[in-house]
Write a structure and sequence with these properties.
Layout lengths: L1 H17 L5 E2 L3 E2 L17 E4 L4 E4 L8 E4 L2 E4 L5 E5 L2 E3 L2 E4 L10 E5 L15 E4 L3 E5 L6 E3 L10 E3 L11 E4 L10 E9 L2 E4 L11 E2 L2 E2 L3 E4 L4 E5 L3 H4 L4 E4 L4 E5 L1 E4 L12 E7 L6 E3 L2 E3 L6 E6 L3 E3 L2 E6 L3 E3 L8 E3 L2 E6 L22 H9 L13 E5 L5 E3 L2 E5 L2 E5 L13 H4 L10 E3 L2 E3 L3 E5 L32 E4 L2 E3 L4 E6 L3 E4 L2 E3 L3 E6 L10 E4 L2 E3 L11 H6 L13 E6 L4 E4 L2 E5 L7 E6 L11 E4 L2 E5 L26 E3 L4
Parallel strand pairs: 1-3, 2-4, 3-5, 4-6, 5-8, 6-9, 7-10, 8-11, 9-12, 10-21, 11-22, 12-23, 21-24, 22-25, 23-26, 24-27, 25-28, 26-29, 27-30, 28-31, 29-32, 30-33, 31-34, 32-35, 33-36, 34-37, 35-38, 36-39, 37-40, 39-42, 40-43, 41-44, 42-45, 43-46, 44-47, 45-48, 46-49, 47-50, 48-51, 49-52, ...
Antiparallel strand pairs: 13-20, 14-17, 15-16, 15-20, 16-17, 18-19
């Protein structure tokens, strides 16, 4: 197969350069030197350029708009001037270099991908991209401080903010402030006009308040991301109308080492495999490859896609205003990848349309009686790439055999983190030997800790596993890891999720489904519901979930940005403004065995607008509810310990006629 690809590469290069031999680089040297090029002419506008194998060309001048560049040798940007390469596409069989890991690029370097010639198709990788077939991409910019947090609250109307760390940031840079309220669209971009230490002056006043405090023990300081990088890969501005942006794609035997790069107007809406950056079937060769310290914003189809590739490092990246699942694990075969300290802000279902989600909303928030048709429309929509993209997530997780540490999902239209697991990997791997030997629903997490979800509909969604046709339901198969995933009767394993924070989510902070799940040291605040967990085995395991050493806060000092008359009268924003009297609750007991240990509940007190309680049940579940649920070592501070809401149709998400919710029992083991 590799020899076939090599022959295709040579054929493609020959075809592309056959009509423009004068624009083939045959000698190593500077781009601007006529002696570098066959025929002694520097490439002209519209020309297709080829760099021969063994030839090393230094781009020392900006180019006209080229028809395409094929690199069989090496093309590297000079670091002595600000430069731009404008081209329809770049095909890399050799190496494209802008800086190295040990010597980051310091000047401004831009690659602009144009689309004057429509419908080109290069070696199965489409058009308007940087496409690697056996080649190497080395892009290394000079920014490492990609995001920080507010040091104090930034008030609406202010044009100054103070952050924890503004090192490396410069006047003229573009930043984004994440929403710290329920509405993800309260994220705002501004340019820096002055810097004094960690105090930034902005080009325009802020429209919204952005909270900047640790309140009642929960860190709700808003994130501030840097969107500007000195290396840019972008589509030309016509992509803003067509939503047909650029893309970067690495095929088998290719390598990508990407750092400190800005990707904007990238991704091709509704086009499979055309994403801002995409490892495609690289397999075990992914080890050592990475994207880090990048900014990916105003894109049209995902952010970072990992497909059939293992052991990548995706670290310290900032995304903003993106479409479809953002950090995307494609088929469920992927393993050993590390997602560390990435920040995703404002993840959308579609460039211009609203989401049509499949979720468990309160009946008063949507047309509940028509919910079956809504879910059908949601998952058969021609306006999203996958059915699940209409219930979009910032982190789409299809195999637990990966690592997620200190990431932030700050404002998705639907889910922040979504673990949706196939029975076996699908897509390109469906039916293969590797797929049949891989059981994501029976595989334990490598590591999941320190992650934060705020300003989403659901913060952490560990449920709603997808089927072979990519559809999914709101109930169904669960995550039940086994000692031997191939043997469903082998010993069950405990999964531990640590140090999670979920706040200002319009529905649930944490929703899980499965068995033997431990949530330790979670911080949950300002959500409609803090925590709900469903069973997978129906009571056959020792326990379904355990929450230990954790904190639940009903309402904090973060009052948000009240908009509706009810919110303005109440003095704070509400998780469900269409149902202003919705009873917020901290912990919902659901089906089968759940335990709460050494956990504190704060600020769950009734008022004139709504009732509340620290402990409650799912409204109004018809699924079986255990009578063995327990709590021990609990503390209640300004909090009503238990609330059993009356039956109010608008509040419930389960109106199937069952009465299991009436049988809910909690055992107070120590009188706490």
């Amino acid at each position: 197969m590799r020899n076939s690809w090599f022959r295709l590469s040579l054929l493609a290069s020959a075809c592309l350069s056959a009509g423009a031999l004068a624009q083939e680089a045959v000698n190593s040297g500077n781009w601007s030197n006529p002696s570098t090029w066959a025929g002694g002419a520097v490439p002209a506008e519209g020309g297709q350029v080829a760099i021969a194998s063994g030839v090393d060309v230094v781009l020392d001048t900006s180019t006209p708009a080229l028809g395409g560049v094929t690199i069989n040798g090496k093309l590297r940007f000079s670091d002595e001037a600000d430069l731009e390469l404008s081209t329809e596409w770049v095909m890399v069989h050799g190496e494209l270099e802008i800086g190295t890991e040990g010597r980051p690029h310091t000047r401004n370097a831009t690659i602009t991908l144009t689309d004057k010639v429509k419908g080109e198709e290069l070696m199965g990788m489409g058009d308007r991209g940087i496409m690697l077939s056996g080649g190497t991409l080395n892009l290394h910019g000079n920014i490492t401080n990609t995001w920080t947090k507010l040091a104090k609250t930034a008030q609406a109307g202010s044009n100054t903010i103070e952050v924890l760390n503004a090192a490396q940031w410069q006047v003229g840079d573009e930043i984004v402030l994440a929403s710290t309220d329920f509405d993800p669209r309260q994220a705002e971009t501004r340019h820096i006009t002055a810097i004094s230490g960690n105090a930034l002056t902005l080009d325009e006043p802020l429209k919204y308040m952005h909270f900047g405090e640790v309140t009642f023990g929960v860190d709700e300081r808003g994130e501030v991301g840097l969107l500007t990088r000195n290396i840019k890969v972008q589509a030309s501005e016509d992509a803003l109308e067509s939503h047909f942006g650029g893309h970067i794609m690495a095929m088998v035997t290719s390598q990508m080492f990407v750092e400190g790069v800005e990707l904007r107007r990238m991704g091709q809406h509704l086009e499979l495999a055309r994403y801002p950056i995409h490892w495609h079937l690289v397999g075990e060769a992914g080890a050592g490859q990475y994207i880090r310290n990048a900014a990916i914003h105003n894109t049209f189809n995902r952010c970072v896609t990992v497909h059939g590739t293992h052991n990548l490092r995706i670290e310290n990246n900032v995304t903003y205003n993106t479409v479809g699942h953002c950090f995307f694990m494609e088929d469920g075969i992927e393993r050993g990848n590390e997602f560390v300290r990435n920040l995703g802000i404002q993840t959308k279902c579609h460039p211009t349309l609203d989401c049509v989600p499949t979720n468990l909303a309160a009946a008063g928030e949507y047309d509940y009686e028509n919910r079956i048709n809504i879910r059908r429309m949601s998952q058969s929509s021609p306006d999203t790439l996958l059915p699940s993209d209409n219930t979009v997530s910032t982190f789409w997780i299809t195999n637990p055999d990966n690592t997620y540490i200190d990431n932030v999902a700050a404002g998705s239209d639907a889910n922040g983190f979504w673990m949706s697991l196939p029975e076996h990997p699908n897509g390109a791997f469906e039916g293969s030997e590797d797929s049949l030997a891989t059981w994501p629903r029976r595989t334990n997490f490598r590591e999941f800790r320190g992650n934060v979800a705020h300003s989403n509909f659901d913060g952490f969604m560990f449920d709603r596993n997808f089927n072979t046709d990519n559809t999914f339901g709101v109930t169904g198969n669960a995550h039940m890891p086994k000692e031997d995933p191939n043997d469903p009767d082998s010993k069950g394993l405990v999964s531990t999720f640590e140090d999670l924070t979920a706040y200002k989510n319009r529905n649930g902070g944490i929703w899980g489904r499965g068995e033997n799940h431990i949530f330790r040291n979670v911080r949950v605040a300002d959500n409609a519901m803090g925590y709900t967990h469903a069973s997978g085995s129906g009571g056959r395991d020792p326990f379904t979930s355990l929450v230990v050493d954790s904190l639940f806060v009903g309402e904090t000092a973060n009052v948000g940005n009240p908009q509706t008359p009810e919110e303005i009268a109440y003095g704070r924003s509400l998780p469900k403004p269409l149902v202003p009297d919705f009873p917020i609750r901290g912990y919902e007991y659901y089906d089968y065995r759940h335990d709460v240990v050494n956990t504190t509940f704060v600020n769950y007190e009734d008022n004139d607008l709504r009732e509340t309680g620290a402990l409650s049940y799912l409204l109004y579940t018809s699924a079986g509810v255990s009578t063995e649920n327990t709590i021990a070592g609990a503390k209640f501070i300004n909090a009503k310990p238990v609330h059993f809401p009356e039956m109010v149709f608008e509040w419930g998400n389960d109106h199937l006629g069952g009465v299991a919710w009436r049988t809910s029992v909690f055992h107070d083991l120590d009188g706490s």
